Amino acid sequence: MNTSPEIIELDRLDSDCCRDWFFDQAFCLTCGLCSSACPVAGVDGFDPRMLVRLVSLGQSGATVASRWPWICTMCAKCEAVCPLGIAIPDIVRRVRGLRDRDAVPGIIHKGLTMAIKTGNNLGLPEEDFVFILEDVAAEIAEEPGFEDFKVPIDKPGANLMATVHNKLVNTHTEDLKHWWKIFHAAGEDWTVPVENWEGTNWGFFTGDDEGMRTLVGRVAANMERLQVNSLLWPE
Ligand code: SF4
Ligand code: SF4
Q1: Phi, psi angle pair for 176, to nearest 5°
Q2: Whole-model pTM?
Q3: Are 28 and 7 in contact (CB under 8 A)?
């Protein structure tokens, strides 16, 4: 944990901000099971048990300013093994949400802003999205057994709607093929929405509840618009 003078000062300014969020964190037994289960414990000294203790003891300012909350992958293994069911990923999200948005590491806040504005983290225009999907579908149709393959974009009344991770229309189009071939082989009646197709909700990862809610609402609105029964949200 970075304990620079600047961060210690933050502790003084912000000492109680997390106390009321998760009353149960105060019951932490310091058993360390969370740290044992955590796949990233030890990275830059990250320790979920210590994170819980810091927040419980009113030292949330230190966690907000440190890199620790951004090391967590939100996998929830810690919560699964915690004998008291302490929701560590929720604590991490809340702490992330307290960080100034300009100081959110990496591209995830910018991606969220773009997704709110355009419907996907890349800002990919609709015609480019459709072009990429149809191009991938044409490649699949060249393979034996898939000659009749087409991608059902925005199909009303489909049984299943699949969201798309922006990576799959950017650098990993091969992964789209795996999903689509499984749907085809299973005889699934599926579709991909033409707008608001983004499956990666960086509102969730940045602790921006309002942004997260907006993106989830758009997925639900697509299901309603297309009258789809089921959602595949692989992200
Ligand atoms: S597993 Fe739960 S009780 Fe044990 S140290 Fe971690 S948060 Fe505390
Ligand atoms: S949610 Fe975070 S703290 Fe918990 S086990 Fe996963 S990476 Fe570790």
Answers
A1: -60, -40
A2: 0.79
A3: no
Pair 207, 94: CB distance under 8 Å: yes
| Cβ of 193 below 6 Å from ligand 2 | no
Quickly tell me which residue has 């802003």 as its tokens: 113
How is the chain split into domains, by residue range? 5-99, 108-232
Ligand 1 environment, Cβ below 6 A: 28-34, 49, 52, 82-84, 86
- For 86-125, what is each residue's pLDDT tens digit? 999 999 998 999 999 999 998 899 999 999 999 999 999 9
Query: Amino acid letter at 99?
Result: R
Which atom of ligand 2 lies at the shortest distance from residue 77's CA? 5
Tell me which of 2.40.50.140, 1.10.1060.10, 3.40.50.300, 3.40.980.10 is the CATH number of domain 5-99. Answer: 1.10.1060.10
Question: Pocket of ligand 2, candidates 36, 38, 204: which has the most ligand atoms within 8 Å of its Cβ, to mutate?
Answer: 38
Amino acid at 203: G
| Residue labelled with tokens 């030292």 | 59
